[in-house]
Amino acid sequence: MPSDVPTRRPPGYDPRDHPPFAVTVDLVVLTVRDDVLQVLLVRRGEEPFAGCAALPGGFVRPGEDLAEAAARELAEETGLHAAPAHLEQLASYGRPGRDPRMRVVSVAHLVLAPGLAEPHPGGDAAGARFVAASEVLAGAPALAFDHAGILRDGVERARAKLEYSALGTAFCADEFTVADLRAVYQAVWGVPLDPRNFHRKVTGTPGLLTPTGGSTARGGGRPAALYRRGPAAQLWPPILRPAS
């Protein structure tokens, strides 16, 4: 908020006329590891739901904006301090009773990053680990609060955005091959993709990829061209998900 915006309480306003409530941030942190879409979970160290799995997050502090709170909670609860490749607000969740402590509205954020290191729990988290998103979506482990629904929304947002945006490259290293990018799409969408068709689509989509001029021969195979993320934010034509 600009510093010149008045912050004085308006005349006649009494905050005691309104029921108290708190604001939290919850984080859907997704990465692709070993060609599997994985989500970051913490084990809660405090009540409510002590010992249960949950998404990382916590209360927004006075004077703190939402993005600052999201970054702080990610660092405090997991030890992950590096800036994510992609951070965006996902949705707000304010159903009465979603938190047994009091009325709590959560502003969930979607975080995407390549090759995240093993998390180290801190703050009020007793543990932190990456788990295959498909397993958590199937209910193992069960998540505290309404975090299962938040995770479903986050994964679906990531899946949908891969069709129409360059978001898939956020899961890749600075330099990557088309096969690396295809592995991301397969992991996020959960379906196999034809290598030749995928190569034709992504290399033919204006602005998606920028050739580096280099190549790599990982695994002793034929050298594959290396690319960086191109300037395009939106893809046209889109790369549509195959029907499952």
Short recap of the structure:
The protein is α+β, with helices and mostly antiparallel strands and 244 residues long. The protein is 23% helix and 27% strand.
Main features:
244 residues, Nucleoside Triphosphate Pyrophosphohydrolase, 23% helix, Arc Repressor Mutant, subunit A, alpha+beta, seven-stranded mixed sheet
Word description of this protein:
- By secondary structure, this protein is an alpha+beta fold.
- It has 2 domains: 20-161, Nucleoside Triphosphate Pyrophosphohydrolase, CATH 3.90.79; 165-229, Arc Repressor Mutant, subunit A.
- The protein contains 5 helices and 9 strands; from the N terminus they run E-E-E-E-H-E-E-E-H-H-H-H-E-E.
- The strands form 2 sheets. Strands 1, 2, 3, 4, 5, 6 and 7 form a 7-stranded mixed beta sheet that branches.
- Strand 1 (22-33) and strand 2 form a beta hairpin.
- It is elongated, with a radius of gyration of 21 Å.
Q: Could you give the order of the helices and strands?
A: EEEEHEEEHHHHEE
β-sheet strand percentage = 25-35%
Whole-Å distance between the termini? 45 Å
State the helix count.
Answer: 5
CATH fold naming of the largest domain: Nucleoside Triphosphate Pyrophosphohydrolase
Question: How many domain modules?
Answer: 2
Question: How is the topology of this model organized?
Answer:
Blueprint: E1 22-33, E2 36-44, E3 53-54, E4 57-59, H1 66-78, E5 86-93, E6 104-112, E7 125-132, H2 133-137, H3 147-164, H4 178-189, H5 195-203, E8 209-216, E9 224-229
Parallel strand pairs: 1-6
Antiparallel strand pairs: 1-2, 1-4, 2-3, 2-7, 5-6, 8-9
